[in-house]
Amino acid sequence: MKNITNLQGTFELNNGVQMPYLGLGVYLSEDGSEVINAVKDALNHGYRHIDTASFYHNEEGVGVGIKESDVDREDVFLVTKVWNTEQGYENTLKAFDASLKRLGTDYLDLYLVHWPKEGLYKDTWRALEKLYKEKRIRAIGVSNFMQHHLEDLLTSAEIVPMVNQMEFHPYLVQQDLIDFCTEKGIQYEAWSPLMQGHIFDLDIMKNLAAKYNKTIAQIVLRWDLQKGVVTIPKSSNKNRIISNADLFDFELSNEDVQLLDGLDRDKRFGPDPNNFDF
Description:
Elements: E1 10-12, E2 18-20, E3 24-25, H1 33-45, E4 49-51, H2 59-68, E5 77-82, H3 89-103, E6 110-113, H4 121-133, E7 140-143, H5 147-154, E8 163-167, H6 175-184, E9 187-191, H7 203-212, H8 216-226, E10 230-231, H9 238-244, H10 254-261
Parallel strand pairs: 3-4, 4-5, 5-6, 6-7, 7-8, 8-9, 9-10
Antiparallel strand pairs: 1-2
Helix pairs in contact: 1-2, 2-3, 3-4, 7-8
């Protein structure tokens, strides 16, 4: 198990960059005061990793939240993603500049290809490699790439992705994909760790929460970290943002980690990377 110590702890990417293993996701956080306050609350509480995307239409608010927080930009691990309609070599370079402008920054800590858009993602990756070599991004990666997408990308890539951000929760473990990423030095990262709220309906989670005297969200987020998976729970509620970070005063037993692994049923709550039409 990787060393998990505190809210500002990190996992090391394959290029030596330190990525905080817990972050704030802002999907569906409305641009303006909602996302600004969420980012400020998270950073002022000790978070150092903020994850947005061009598609979320809230990069401006994220940028304002960082500026208005008590934390310097260079101490924040800032992530955004290139959307499918922006993919392709030249389009991605333009999309990157547009994201930077909206975020009010001159570099990114991590830039991700949001989905494996067929016929485009290799050219998109070439653009990310160029931006990385120009030191405009500290790390580059992908999102929603299955093993065959990664294998295809690696046939032409000069740089192995540093991160693969996937839907990940007890109903969708995809251990084979985690193992493949680990073997290639690609850091696995979870989106939708709380199963879009369905995690709260599971009796097994209620039992574990009672056993450890923690919330269901804290149990599943701790499970992510103990599996070596970076995770970015989404919330715009200050109390939940603080609660989601209260993960460092307990540890799940190996048996309970395996118990959660055993819930796997290959069930998605989000789109299928092998079959999406956007």
